[in-house]
Write a structure and sequence with these properties.
By secondary structure, the protein is an alpha/beta fold. The protein is built from 6 helices and 17 strands. Bound molecules: zinc ion.
């Protein structure tokens, strides 16, 4: 790389590896040029200019080094050229790590230090512009009753990504708990011993009443040890558990908040009311 070359009157072109905004396939793009985004072709720039001093400086993203058969712009809007290999079809002045930014660097807009965090992409928005509405002949009437081509955008929320993000945020060594709105069940009613008639009947009654009140309830009436039932509930992310045990004779059950492991003794007669406080939203 010619470090001392005066670049003031030389065209500097930077090719980045990025999904082309207009055509949704991977192409080489540039910053700082009069040719529309994603439409620049490196070959022509090298050919057009005979004298070395006039040759543009081509900085190419390291991510493109060693890669072959790429797609680039064709120096014309909405046209692309396939099978382009840097180092063979054109010769970059240098490969450079152009995209990586590190925490603490200045924001290009406001100058404040950038902070880098881990994030989960839950959804995304694409501005598709007129690409599909024009090619498919979509028309709508504007406020004056005149036919116009609408501008199009696409909005996607990843349902499975929401679940992933929820699990990532609320988990411990035993499993995870989901926000009630997306949990398969809001409440699991777990009788500790289904062979005990009083316990079983109380559990069934509690499940019925909660269901009648509009909650999503599962009654775990399998003949299993309590530990097995609790483990299973933890593995499907049920946020609240009612443990129906010996205290039914005193009219009380245990309400367990999975997120905090908080255990509350609740009167069976007031079981529905206790969830009105915990799960407040219109049903
Ligand atoms: Zn900023």
């Amino acid at each position: 790389m010619e470090s001392c070359r005066d670049l003031s009157n030389v065209c500097v072109i930077v090719f980045l590896s990025m999904p082309c905004r207009k055509h949704s396939f991977r192409c080489m793009d540039r910053i700082a040029s009069s040719i529309p985004e994603g439409c620049l072709l490196p070959i022509e720039w090298a050919k057009d200019r005979k004298k070395d001093a006039e040759k543009p400086v081509l900085f190419v993203d390291k991510a493109l080094e060693g890669r072959a058969n790429l797609i680039a712009g064709a120096n014309k809007e909405n046209y692309h050229l396939k099978n382009l290999t840097p180092g063979k079809d054109f010769h970059p002045t240098a490969y450079a790590d152009l995209r990586a930014v590190t925490g603490g660097e200045a924001c290009p807009n406001c100058g404040k230090p950038l902070r880098i965090d881990t994030a989960v992409e839950i959804g995304h928005i694409f501005k598709l512009g007129y690409r599909y509405t024009e090619s498919m002949g979509a028309r709508v009437l504007d406020k004056n009753g005149k036919e116009v081509t609408p501008i199009m955008g696409s909005y996607g929320i990843g349902i499975e990504r929401i679940l992933t993000a929820a699990v990532e945020q609320s988990n411990d060594e035993n499993g995870f708990w989901l926000p009630p709105a997306i949990a398969p069940f809001e409440i699991v009613v777990a009788p500790v011993n289904v062979k005990d008639e009083t316990v079983r009947a109380a559990a069934e009654d509690i499940a019925k009443r909660l269901e009648a009140a509009g909650y999503d309830v599962i009654l775990d009436d399998r003949d299993e040890r309590p530990g097995v039932k609790f483990k299973d509930a933890d593995l499907v992310g049920i946020p609240f558990r009612i443990t129906v045990g010996k205290k039914v004779t005193e009219g009380t059950v245990e309400l367990v908040l999975r997120s905090t492991h908080e255990v509350r003794d609740v009167r069976i007669t007031a079981i529905v009311e206790s969830f009105e406080e915990l799960l407040r939203w219109p049903r």
